[in-house]
Known about the structure:
The protein is α/β, with parallel strands linked by helices.
Amino acid sequence: MRFGFWPSPWLPFDEMVKLCTHAEATGWDGLWVADHFMSAGANTEMPFPEAWMTLSALAARVPRVRVGTMVTGNTYRHPAVLAKMAATLDHISGGRVVLGLGSGWQENEHRQYGIEFDTIPGRLRRLDEACQVIKALYTEKTSNFSGRYYQLTDATLEPKPVQDPLPLLIGGGGEKVTLKITAKYADEWNHWGNVPMMEYKGAILDAHCADVGRNPADIERTAAVLMFMDTTPAKVEARLKAHPAGRQPPEEPGRAISGTPAEMRDIVAQYEAIGVTEIIITDAVFGDHDEKIATMDLLMREVAGRG
């Protein structure tokens, strides 16, 4: 099992570098950055640096680990430009980039910046075309594409990514369209989810793979989670009560997993049993800097066995 570290985007960059450097040194496998321009909540004035600039700076400072977006909003950039950005960073990082891509959902960013938001079906059609554009530019010497939203005319992309292929990760769990797009184009898939949620959505992805003639095993499955972990059940319960995201009925599929290290090892084994290959964990519920470091180290030492 791989473990990905997802630092909060509102952290000062120096703090983010310290956390990511520590993650790399202690055995984590990936660094992931959210691609948003502002908070989705009422406080849109909180710091929210641009994702690809941040990711490039981190990749230049932090060796070894994979780096990717969780996930890029397709509506924010033309897919040819995005493909060029990711290929460039793949060279800067020595072949460690994962291009995480989704249809885009956060309306306030589009409204404030004058970016066309479109309907859900419209954004999903754009995502489908964008995947075709990116795949063509990465695999063909000269690409032509005539879509409803995007066009390429004798388009070149050089240098090609270091990786062949540079992994395209589709983020989302929409059962009728998003997972079908994933089945058609993705090298990896990510969804927010505990084990029941990932198992349920994964079965739908498998069915779409059958429909499009794709081997489901060709698509890696990764789960993004809020993790509430501590050394005793009482401390775990305190963490859950202290954060709104932790107060959900445990029988309902959702974004959170919780438990002591021993319980977390069992949960990781359950993820592995359903084919999940990476768990991507946000530090948003970990507390202050020292608490983040302590929780990260507890996970690596007592769950991943890398301490």
